[in-house]
Task: structure prediction
Amino acid sequence: MAGTVVRDEPKYEEFTLRLRKTPGLPGEIDMGGAGPLLERLTPGDEVTVTLWRGYAVAVRRGGTVQNTADTPEGEAMFVTAVILALISAGVFLLHTGGSALVRARTWARDGIPAVLAVRAKWAAGSALCTLPAFLLADLSGLGPAAGVAAWCAMVPLLHRYLRRRFSRVHGRHARPLTARSPMR
Result:
C-alpha cells in the first residue's frame, strides 16, 4: 500500500486508498468512508484487495475488512424492490388497458367507472408496500426473498382493506358486497 487520503470536511469528503502499481489492481480505491480499516492504515502496510467483476469491493488487513464504495452489497434488495413497484404499476396498466378495450362502448356511454380509482390506489399502495417489506427484510438480514415474501403478504391485506373501505355504501342500509363486485 502506498498511502491513504482521509478528508472529512463539511463540503468535501475523500476516502482513498492508494496502492503500489500492481498488475490487475487499480492505483486508487474509493473506500467510501474512513472506518474501520482506512483510518488505521499506514504507508507500507500489506493489504488484501478483493476483486469482483473487475471492481475492488473490499480491502482486508489481518482480521479487519472494509467494503469499498464499489461493493454491490444491498443492490439486490434495491433492484428487487424497484421491480416489484414496477410490476404493480404494469399490472394495473395492463388490466386497465384490457378493460378499456373490452368495455370501450360501455365506458363511452356510461363514463369511466369509479372502480378504476380504487384499482389505482391498490396499485400505488402495492408499490408503496415495497418500502416496509424490504425494510423488514433488510433489518432481519434474510435478503430479497424475505422482502418478496413480506410484500406478497402485504398486498392481499391492502386489497382487503380497500375492498372494505371503498366498495360499500356507507350507512345503515349499506348493500353488502355481491359476487359481481367491481374489485374482483
